[in-house]
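chain below, 92 aa
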Amino acid sequence: MITLKNFKTIALLEGISYLLLLGIGSPLKHFTGNDIVVRLLGMPHGLLFVTYILMAFLLKEKQNWNLSAFGIILVCSIIPFGTFYVDKKYLT
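prediction:
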């Protein structure tokens, strides 16, 4: 069963993994040629991203998110720090 608490956890982990990829993985890969962080975090981040999107769709009706709120929740998954905003604005 998908709960809001589970979604909050996935949102937090997805946000952290995204920031690690953007803030550490990408610079290391492009400036030093070392892609170890990207290789280690890429797949887990991808799985967290897909899980976040699927859970958002499954929770939409249960949480009574209107189309605008739902769109923001989805778009925030691709914006750095976006999932943290979603947590504060829509998941409390």
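The first helix runs from residue 4 to 32. The CA atoms of residues 21 and 42 lie 7 Å apart.
thats it, cya
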